[in-house]
Design a protein that fits this description.
The complex is a heterodimer of chains A (about 325) and B (about 400). Chain A contains twelve helices and 14 strands. In chain A, the strands form three sheets. Chain A has a seven-stranded mixed sheet with strand order 3-2-4-5-7-6-12, with helices on both faces. A five-stranded mixed sheet of chain A has the order 9-11-10-13-14, sandwiched between helices. In chain A, about 60% of the residues are buried. Chain A has about 325 residues and is of the alpha/beta class. Chain B has a single domain, classed as Rossmann fold, CATH 3.40.50. The chains are: A alpha/beta (about 325), B alpha/beta (about 400). The interface between A and B is large, with 45 and 47 residues.
């Protein structure tokens, strides 16, 4: 065991896979010599050589395309898109190519690539360094979408993603790289070293994709969250004084629907929390599935707490960010119903 | 200089529209044999003339002239002719079956047969091909089963792609032929990635890819050339300039101002402009580029100057936008006729042998068609509908199992 923040845990996952599998290669903008703008690949080029860990041109579409070609050859590319906001030039290569290659070739070709990308706001990044575009990718069949909420999960899920033979989009909520941010921007951040999930196992381990985690058991209401919002939801539940069962989805596709359904059938109430915009956000999908599968058990309408349907405004970051107070109000509302 | 008139937008216009006679007098066709063949380690900056000239080996009389003559054996020439004739015959037959309603769609490569056939022959069998949709000659020159190709076109019970792809979007791992995408240009940077992987692993195989003139406008073209030059990837990147992207002539991809081979100069790559209807020139240029890549000397961009004699697809009617007789008047002729003329000239071929070969190719294609149609044509189900839920992921996830059950299969 070692104390790690999420950056170190993510670095450790790539380190483990570069060591275990000669086919693993890591590349992206600034990830080679420098080690990445968030330092997630620090030291890896020195350890594994510049043919396996290297810098890429500023061309996200080219990064994805070459990763697909490498995957077809038989390598396991792990690419970094520096910010999730920059992923759109690579959209065609991800959606039309990586996601469909196995299908369209009758199973003869596939691209086992992992696309890592920091997402989410709360760092004063403005509208081009704060987005949470996960629902854009969950809509695409053939892709898997993963969002970890802590160092232990980040390492185990990233190893599972790299080993997966399907393309995986791995979003890293950058606001919790250094500590479990609960949404109180005016309080000092508690580092991961003070949190039990900052104690990360050494070496190789996997957390299977498609398995949610119940981070707090409760009887009154089910809260569905992922990434940064797992911590915000816990703070909001504490403020509301409600006995919430908080589920960290960890993987959006494939979704652990059985875990969700079992919990909602038990509590009869559901609140969904995500930082992304509301309309057609992943919360809409969750809401639909809970309604389809748990309607007779619901005692109140499902409530969503999300980012507003606006770009992420730089000066109004904390009015935009769905903080613990909004979660608290949603919980109280759903308990009244 | 001060402004003297109102600004105006230039919208390119081809040389002729239906009913008009194309004036090819402005098209500069350098004589065969003029360009020297540089060593494969020639620096790109001393090769800029090759992007504006044209590598040509066969002269008007069918003689092979100049340093680029690849000096192929009679067996190679005969094989090349057979593959080109097979490709043309296959195309004509598939076009006909589409008209008969046995398949939904087809795309011919008539007039461009030398491109894919000569290039496949110049590359090694282990090299990986990332084609666009008009390089069926690659599969034919790699002696891929015609029956297998037809089964894909028919989406029948032997379609290895399980009825998932539009006809002609072939894919064959065994033949080193990457799955064709309908999204243009995506394969160009993917080929560069494959080549980078081959270099990372210390392999000896190289990659090759093809796009049309129109697709050079896509960002993927720029990605491919950038990554290829940055990492000196062992790849041969080909632009098949067949003059037409559906109804828009090559001027809409910037072909009025400069050549497509000249795009290479800005990236620091050699750019070769080649007579795409000259089998020997296409073979020689491709071999040069492949040798260069195989010797860690980096990538090459090749522009294959040719003409799309066929409609874009069976859904297209070129008489609506270009003169009907343009191909007949095309200054670079027909690639099959030109190779035949050369073989007759050097005394290894005769009209009688040609007639016999045509008959044999026709028999082969008919026999393949008969067999393929025995496995069904459009409308027959290639497999159980349950198969459509497979291969979305490596393992079928729970939500797809539930959707399959909902369909009742």
């Amino acid at each position: 065991m070692a104390t790690m923040n999420m950056i170190q845990a993510i670095n450790s996952a790539m380190d483990v896979m570069l060591e275990r599998d000669r086919g693993t290669v890591v590349f992206g903008e600034d990830v080679g010599y420098f080690g990445g703008v968030f330092r997630c690949t620090a030291g890896l080029q020195k350890k594994y050589g510049k043919e396996r860990v290297f810098d890429a041109p500023i061309a996200e579409g080219g990064i994805l395309a070459t990763a697909i070609g490498m995957g077809v050859y038989g390598l396991r590319p792990v690419v970094e898109i520096q910010f999730a906001d920059y992923i759109y030039p690579a959209f065609d290569q991800l959606v039309s190519e990586a996601a469909r290659l196995r299908y369209r070739s009758g199973g003869e070709f596939w691209a086992p690539i992992t696309v890592r990308s920091p997402c989410g706001g709360g760092i004063f990044g403005g509208q081009t360094h704060s987005q949470s575009p996960e629902a854009v990718f969950t809509h695409v069949c053939g892709l898997k979408t993963v969002i970890p909420s802590n160092p232990v999960d980040a390492k185990g899920l990233l190893i599972a993603a790299i080993e997966d033979d399907d393309p995986v989009v791995f979003f890293e909520p950058k606001r919790i790289y250094n500590g479990p941010f609960e949404g109180y921007h005016d309080r000092p951040l508690v580092p991961w070293s003070k949190h039990p999930l900052g104690e990360v196992p050494d070496g190789y381990y996997r957390i299977e994709l498609g398995k949610a985690a119940i981070v707090r058991e409760g009887a009154a209401v089910t809260v569905l969250a992922y990434g940064t919002m797992v911590h915000v939801a816990q703070a909001g539940a504490a403020e509301a004084g409600v006995d919430a069962e908080i589920i960290d989805l960890r993987t959006l596709v494939p979704l652990d629907i059985d875990c969700i359904v079992a919990s909602v059938k038990k509590t009869g109430r559901c609140v969904i929390v995500h930082e992304a915009t509301k309309t057609s956000g992943f919360g809409a999908e969750l809401m639909a599935q809970v309604q389809e599968l748990c309607f007779a058990h619901l005692e109140a309408p499902i409530v969503r707490v999300t980012g507003w349907d606006t770009p992420y405004p730089h000066a109004f970051e904390w009015e935009y960010f769905p903080g613990p107070d909004r979660v608290k109000r949603a919980l109280l509302k759903v308990m009244e119903g | 200089m001060s402004q003297t008139s109102a600004l105006r937008l230039h919208v390119p216009e081809p040389k002729a529209r239906p009913g008009e006679a194309t004036d090819f007098s402005g098209l500069v066709i350098p004589a065969a044999g003029v360009l020297k063949r540089p060593p494969i380690d020639e620096p790109d900056h001393s090769m800029r003339d090759y992007a504006f000239g044209m590598i040509r080996v066969l002269d008007e009389a069918g003689a092979a002239v100049g340093e680029w003559d690849p000096k192929l054996t009679p067996e190679m020439l005969k094989a090349g002719l057979r593959y080109m004739l097979t490709t043309r015959t296959y195309d004509e037959r598939m076009m006909r079956v589409q008209r008969q309603g046995k398949t939904s769609f087809y795309m011919k490569c008539t007039g461009e047969e030398a491109v894919a056939v000569a290039q496949a022959m110049a590359l090694d069998r282990g090299d990986m091909l990332f084609p666009s949709y008009r390089q069926q000659g690659l599969l034919i020159a790699r002696e891929h089963s015609l029956v297998d190709m037809m089964c894909q076109v028919y989406n029948n019970t032997k379609d290895r792609l399980k009825g998932r792809q539009l006809p002609v979007m072939y894919s064959s791992k065994d033949s080193g032929f990457f799955s064709i995408s309908g999204n243009l240009g995506t394969q160009f940077p993917q080929a560069v990635g494959w080549a980078m992987a081959s270099a990372i692993k210390g392999d000896t195989r190289i990659a090759a890819s093809w796009v049309g003139d129109g697709t050079t406008a896509e960002a993927d073209f720029h990605y491919a050339l950038t990554f290829a030059t940055v990492y000196q990837a062992p790849v041969v990147l080909n632009v098949v300039n067949n003059q037409w992207a559906i109804s828009t002539f090559q001027g809409f991809a910037g072909g009025e101002q400069t050549t497509f081979a000249a795009r290479a100069i800005g990236y620091g790559l050699p750019g070769l402009r080649v007579d795409g209807n000259d089998f020997l020139a296409v073979y020689a240029a491709t071999k040069w580029a492949a040798d260069r890549a195989r010797n860690n000397l980096g990538p090459t961009l090749i522009e294959l100057y040719t003409y799309r004699a066929a409609p874009h697809s069976t859904s297209d009617d070129p008489s609506a936008y270009r003169p009907d007789d343009e191909f007949k008047r095309w200054p670079l002729g027909d690639p099959i006729e030109r190779l035949k003329q050369h073989m007759e000239r050097i005394g290894i071929w005769s009209e009688a042998e040609h007639t016999a070969l045509l008959a044999q190719v026709d028999d082969d294609v008919r026999a393949a068609q008969k067999e393929a149609e025995g496995y069904g044509t459009l409308g027959v189900k290639p497999a159980s509908a349950a198969s459509m839920f497979e291969d979305v992921y490596k393992d079928v996830p729970q939500h797809l199992i539930r959707q399959r059950q909902e369909l009742g299969v």
